[in-house]
Fold this protein.
Amino acid sequence: MAILKILQYPDERLHTIAKPLPAVTAATRNLIRDMAETMYAAPGVGLAATQVDVHEQLIVIDISETRDQLMVFINPEIIASSGEIEREEGCLSVPGVYEKVCRAERVTVNALDAHGKPFTLEMDGLQATCVQHEIDHLKGKVFVEYLSLLKQSRLRAKIKKHRRETL
Ligand code: K1U
Ligand code: ZN
């Protein structure tokens, strides 16, 4: 197992569109193990392969307090959504930034599990927010792109200043 490096916003590679996985192999399962270890160590409640510079459609989520309810989604697709809810989000690729984002309240997702078996899952609450946030990563979208252009440019300036000061 290994802890992987998480790309930091505004790294251009975070805007890469992930490709569907044609098959679930031993290499996929190794990546799942490494991504789960990386998410738990961060700590975070989700991680998309894009964030570790692997541009394949794979995400892991665990919103449980006991940190033992790992969910794996390969080639995830939102097939239905309803309602709207505003919730505060964070991102392991944008440390220290928490902002409110409005998303669907409930989603139904089709995906493959770690064994390549298809499943359909209805999600709500933090789980629904998290799966939408992670699927956005696979599409090359970072949650700060939901903020106003003014907030985004202030955020980029703050990150640049912080990097200059810590170099
Ligand atoms: O994708 C990511 O960068 C992970 C991100 C997921 C997420 C959190 C909140 C709303 C939407 C999506 C995080 O895990 S940020 C860290 C975080 O929220 C957290 C960390 C430790 C315990 C509980 C939450
Ligand atoms: Zn994120």
